[in-house]
Amino acid sequence: MECRIGCAACCVIISISSPIPGMPEGKPAGIRCIQLTDDNKCKLFGKPERPAVCLSLKPSLEMCGMECTHAYSYLEALEKSTKPG
Question: Which residues of the chain have pLDDT under 50?
Fold first, then answer.
């Protein structure tokens, strides 16, 4: 499955614990990544600065569904269920 251009659910919903250019402490869950453009495209796509979690998260029908709202709901539930303590 190809990433749905302009969705950006994974760039908003999930937390990223590793540094991101412009976000040296990482990115909290629910906060828009500073590397997203106004039309929800990643400025780091294909660059070595892109965090490992972003590289490893692959789009799938289960996660992304048929529309962005599904992806946001799915990732929010995943983030909540894996949040430490």
Answer: none
Is 30 part of a structural domain of the chain? yes
Domain presence at residue 15: yes
Domain contains 56: yes
Q: Has residue 57 been placed in a domain?
A: yes
Q: Which amino acid is at 37?
A: T
Rounded to two decimals, what is the model's pTM?
Answer: 0.88
- The range of the structural domain enclosing residue 58 comes to 9-82
